[in-house]
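Researcher: Go.
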Amino acid sequence: MKINLNLILDAKASLGEGPHWDHETKQLYFVDIEGKAVHVFHTVSHAHELHRFEKRVSSVIPATDDSLIVTLDDGIYRYYPHSGELEAIAHIEADMPDNRFNDAKCDPAGRLWAGTMSIGHAKDQGSLYRLERCSEPVRVVTGVGCSNGLAWDESKGCMYYIDTLKLGVDRFRYHSGTAEISGRETVIEWPPAEGYPDGMTIDNEGMLWIAHWGGGKVSRFDPDTGKRLAEIEVPALYVTSCVFGGERLDELYITTARVVLSEDEHALYPHAGGVFMAKPGVRGTPSRRFVL
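Model: Structure:
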C-alpha cells in the first residue's frame, strides 16, 4: 500500500532533526543542528517560530514548566523562549572538544536520555547519558560512534537504541522505576545499501519507524523479527527522524536535511530540509516532556 506524503513546512533546514510533538500546545518542535536554531511549528495555525543559538543545537524537549531543554555542542541547557534566557544544567565531555551532543529524548517517566558523537566520526568516542530532574547526568552507555534514535516499549520492559555507525538497532531491558538498562542485544540488522539508521519512533503496536540517512525513506520494522513491514519514500535523500503527532497520534512527522547535498542533488530534492507528514494507518505513542 502506498502511503501519501505531504510537505507541511518548507523549512530549508541545513540539518533538520529531533522532532518532538507536544500534545498540550499542538506544536511540533524540531532543530536545525547546523543552522543553530530551534523551530516551533503550530500545526493548527501554521505559525512558525525560530529561536537561534550561538552553538549547534541538537535536540529540543519541552519541560513540565514550559521551558525547553536543549542540548548544545557542549552540554545540556534550559532555555526560556519568552525571555531568551539560557541556563546551563550540565557541561559534558569538556575534555573531548571533537565531540558534540546529538539526539535526545525523554523516556515515559520524563527522564532525559541524550547522546554524543565524534565530529570526526570516530567509532567509539561518544556516550549516552541519562538526566533526571536536573541532577548530575549519568553516563549509561560508552564506546558509541554516533548516538541517535531512542524509543521505549513499557509493555515489554525494553528500550531501543541506535548507534548509527554500528548499522543496527539494539534493545536493552529497561526498568521504568529505576531507569536501569541491561542485556544489550542487536534486534535489527540494517540493510547496508539503504543509507544509515538515524532517528526513530515507536507506534502503539510496538513497531519501530526508522529514518534512512542517505536512503530517502522511513521504514517500519518489527523488532521481534527484524523484518521490515512498510516504508515511506521521502523526496529528500537525507531523512533524519520522525515522530507521531496530531490529535489522534496518527500523523507521522518526518524531518530531513540538505547540508550535504551536491548541486545536482539540490535540483533533485528542492524541498530537502523540510518537514513532511504522512498518515501511515497506525497510531503512535506520545512524546514525553522533561519532568522537573
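Model: The domain at 5-278 is CATH 2.120.10.30 (Neuraminidase).
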